Amino acid sequence: MTMLYENIRLALFSLRANKMRALLTMLGIIIGIASVIAIMTVGDSVTATVTESMSALGANNITLSLQQRPEDEEEDTASLWGMNFGDDEEEKEPTDKDYITTDMLKSLKDAFGDAIETYSVTESVGAGEIQDNERTASVSVMGTSLGYFWANDLEILQGNYFSERDLTDGAYVALLSEDALDDLFDGSAEAAVGSRITTAIDDKYYNFIIEGVYSEPEDETGGAAMMAYYMGGMDTTDLYIPLKTAQAINHTSGYRSLTVVVDPEQNPDELAAQIEDFFDNLYRNNRDFEVQAMSLSSMVSIMESIMNTLTTAIALIGGIALIVGGIGVMNIMLVSITERTREIGTRKALGAPNSSIRIQFIIESIVICIIGGAIGIVIGCLGGIAAADYVGASATPSLRSILISLGFSMAIGVFFGYHPANKAAKLNPIDALRYE
Amino acid sequence: MGRTIIDLKDIYKRFYIGTPNELEVLHGISFNVNEGEFVAVVGQSGSGKSTLMNIIGALDRPTEGAYMLDGVDMIAAKDNELSKIRNRKIGFVFQTYNLISKTNALKNVEMPMLYAGVPGRRRIERAKELLKMVDMQDRMKHLPEELSGGQKQRVAIARAMANDPAIILADEPTGALDSATGRMVMDLFHKLHDEEGKTIVLITHSPELAEETERIITIRDGNVIGERRGNG
Prior knowledge:
The structure holds 2 protein chains of 2 kinds.
Chain A: H1 2-17, H2 19-56, E1 62-68, E2 100-101, H3 102-112, E3 116-120, E4 122-132, E5 135-144, H4 146-151, E6 155-159, H5 164-169, E7 173-177, H6 189-192, E8 196-201, E9 204-215, H7 223-232, E10 236-242, H8 243-250, E11 254-255, E12 257-262, H9 268-282, E13 289-295, H10 296-339, H11 341-349, H12 354-390, H13 399-425, H14 429-434
Parallel strand pairs in A: 5-10, 7-9
Antiparallel strand pairs in A: 1-12, 1-13, 2-11, 3-12, 4-5, 4-8, 6-9, 8-9
Helix pairs in contact in A: 1-12, 2-10, 2-12, 2-13, 10-12, 10-13, 12-13
Chain B: E1 4-15, E2 23-34, E3 38-42, H1 49-56, E4 64-69, E5 72-73, H2 79-89, E6 90-93, H3 105-116, H4 120-133, H5 149-160, E7 167-171, H6 179-196, E8 199-204, H7 207-211, E9 215-220, E10 223-229
Parallel strand pairs in B: 3-8, 3-9, 6-7, 7-8
Antiparallel strand pairs in B: 1-2, 1-4, 4-5, 9-10
Helix pairs in contact in B: 3-4, 3-5, 4-5, 5-6
């Protein structure tokens, strides 16, 4: 124990005696550890942020989307994200016969019963402008089902949600965002409900009766709203109309994609597979299109694994810097041992066994690496937090990566210190004593 | 006469064995040193006295011969045992002091006790005692580079005494010192010999210094050519 303390003291002493050299030697370790920690911090926080925001959308939701059938199996993965990276494959536009219909959804609901709570469907009509006397407000008009309100935590502040008749008849009624009131009806929700508004969409005018005013849940990151604010210089809000109305305006009868809100008790991955089987059956005669069902949780896990692979890959590159740093440590240890040959000889003459000389220099190498590692951890954490902050994710350097880094720098110290230390231990005391 | 501490019999040392330039440096040296004796080994440079000192000091092994140190068979001892013997039974004093730089006088004196596993407080106490004995108690915290040659050699002598060794092996201890400080160092050896009863082997090329000891062993060309009483 005394020996250990003494060796650490000696190591610190020799570092202090050659400050510049020690710092340069540590630099490799510092850069290596700092980059590994920074990358892991950023990677972890980005993964966490993405996962969190995806989960906020409802990890239990299953997204159904109409996909063009791949011509060969290889392209299965390319279309995994609903995108076709596939090169020159002919893009086919789905027609009415390809769309997912209300009838299909009904039979799906019949087949799965309580496992499916509701559907969240949107049909975008387009961007429009509401005119009220002199003032205007930009809106994007969206046909929605009740499920959409559920899935997105929207709340009716004033008035009511669409009635059953509005939905089935495709009435020209609308729900206005409370944010739009800044520009309309002098900010009064009461005045808005029941009023008729005229909305211009693509140079066509539509009249809607406002049935209610809704509020959106507070968005913590404020991403979308902020984006709209900066891009348009003003708020564009969603004007919700019954789905059927939107379909009538768009002249469609089906959906390209929709979200199935499922019972939280269900395993979304299993359910997604079952739903996909269900649609495979329905689309077995469709040569061009099929329906893909994907649970958000499986998307999240795919996302996570991609992020982890990416983080590990980049961290490994940082690890190369560590190895280079380790070689630097080995080099300086060899120099230090040559310089201190006489000291080693003297110690041997005083009765130091080979093992204690070996341990002395291994500890010196470990001390260099741990100090370098600690500095690297501090720099890496700060750098990681700054970088994560820059991309808008909140970063918390994980204790795990810090401990691993410390352990790793210690291992580098042992690994790259062993050879020089062994060389010192094996010096012949007479030669070492006579060394000039 | 006390018991025999160093017992060398027919010691041969050859270098470059099996090569055309094989060299025999010691040609069968034998002598004894008894407990409490102050002996000088005198020889000119090239006489083989350094090689002999390395063998006595367990830093090197003879090619042939028998060597008993304080009752231990040094030929049979393994490397780790030799480390232990150097630590416990031999106190080295070198011409060039060989203090550990960047380490103060006190820590230097502590060092052999550290390797012997003496616990901290007793180690420091003993080191302080030894530094007081060599009259260096005021400079315990000084680094070697802050000390004069004579002061360094006194610290080295204190260090040699640390584990109360069976012999003090001094290799030209005054070689790098002026005559006044050299005198002081020699006085210190006499003090250790007279007051502590230490067995001291002084290796030197100087006949005057050798005269101060009790017995003078003269070496030339790897042979003992004479042995006589000194004035000490």
